[in-house]
Write a structure and sequence with these properties.
This protein is mainly alpha-helical. Helix content is 87%, strand content 0%. It has helices at 2-6, 9-20, 24-44, 46-69.
Length: 71
């Protein structure tokens, strides 16, 4: 799966550097993702902001349900 992610032209290069590069490259990778998200909000508006937030909320709810149903 990681090999498939590496094959995406720009994202793959950034991801490979974050995984295999020096420790500072992880911080730059996160900064690049934040900047891409910010630019998407500037150009696309409210939907670019709300969709990742909704996905994160659903993931957190799923995680809470999974943790509380474990025995």
């Amino acid at each position: 799966m990681l090999r498939l992610a590496y094959s995406v032209p720009l994202f793959g290069w950034l991801l490979r550097d974050a995984v295999e590069g020096p420790p500072s490259s992880r911080g730059w990778f996160v900064a690049n993702l934040a900047m891409i998200w910010f630019l998407a909000i500037v150009f696309l508006g409210y939907p670019a902001f709300i969709w990742p937030v909704l996905v994160a909320a659903a993931a957190m709810l799923t995680g809470i349900v999974a943790l509380t149903t474990l025995r």
